[in-house]
Design a protein that fits this description.
single chain; six-stranded mixed sheet; 2-enoyl-CoA Hydratase, Chain A, domain 1; Lyase 2-enoyl-coa Hydratase, Chain  A, domain 2; 261 residues; 10 strands; 11 helices; 48% helix
Length: 261
């Protein structure tokens, strides 16, 4: 069902795993790969068989080592703008996906690699993972909305340091900055990502969808507007079978059996 040239997609127990599969070039992002990412997450977002998505990279060296520099080098200003917008659109398909997305960061997450993991809801990093926005060393800046997401995640001062220096940093520093949720041994990375995904998949799909909307919309607006949006979504939950079941199960001291309706 999900067949791509540069992506591998599998589905097990309502958890989809998307693997960027260009290990010979450290899973670097070219135009075709970005188009496939946009298509895959758009399709997965509307697939009722999918509740949670894990995104990772093929091999043990790289999650995504960045955008394809050989492709970018000859671009002119308009072509650079168009490539940047393509990357932004692909990553918005991840961020805007109504399903929770977990990045399992198995190695280098540099440039576009750091940018794509920031579009995910949660980030779990291997101890060997390396992060950075090294674009400044190439005479450019992050172009796939990295300056925007990084600032929102770690704050303006830390974001400027990362972008201005172009330095690479490890998983422990990424955790200290608040860039990742967990750091685990590489051998345990996918198991931990699947454990977290399974826990989330056990919740009601509609509640997960509106929870994501409440947080993502709220962070982009003022407190009062965000609070009103939250209240509207909170109210909608009471029109679902899952709300009736969840509260009934709580009162009856048993585990809720959600049906995603």
């Amino acid at each position: 069902m999900y067949t791509y040239e540069n992506l591998l997609v599998s589905l097990e127990n309502r958890i989809a795993t998307v693997t960027i599969n260009r290990p010979k070039v450290l899973n670097a992002l070219n135009k075709d790969t970005l188009l496939e990412i946009k298509a895959a997450f758009t399709a997965l977002g509307s697939d009722p068989a999918v509740k949670v998505i894990i995104l990772t990279g093929a091999g043990e060296k790289a999650f995504v080592a960045g955008a394809d520099i050989a492709f970018m080098q000859p671009l002119n200003a308009m072509e650079g703008f168009e490539f940047g917008r393509l990357g932004q659109e692909a990553f918005m398909a991840i961020e805007g996906c109504p399903k929770p997305v977990i990045a399992a960061i198995n190695g280098f997450a540099l440039g576009g690699g750091e940018e794509i993991c920031m579009a995910c809801d949660l980030r779990i990093a291997a101890e060997t993972a390396k992060f950075g926005q090294p674009e400044i060393n190439l005479g450019i800046i992050p172009g796939f909305a990295g300056t925007q997401r990084l600032t929102r995640l770690v704050g303006k001062t830390a974001a400027k340091y990362v972008v201005y220096t172009g330095d690479m940093f490890g998983a422990d520093e990424a955790y200290r900055l608040g860039l990742v949720n967990k750091v685990v041994p590489l051998a345990d990375l996918m198991a931990e990502a699947k454990t977290v995904a399974a826990k989330i998949a056990g919740k009601g799909a509609l509640a997960l969808k509106v929870a994501k909307s409440a947080i993502d919309v709220g962070v982009e607006t003022d407190f009062n507007t965000g609070s009103i949006h939250e209240a509207e979504l909170f109210g909608l939950c009471f029109a679902t079978a899952d709300q009736k079941e969840g509260m009934k199960a709580f009162l009856e001291k048993r585990k809720a059996e959600f049906i995603d309706k």
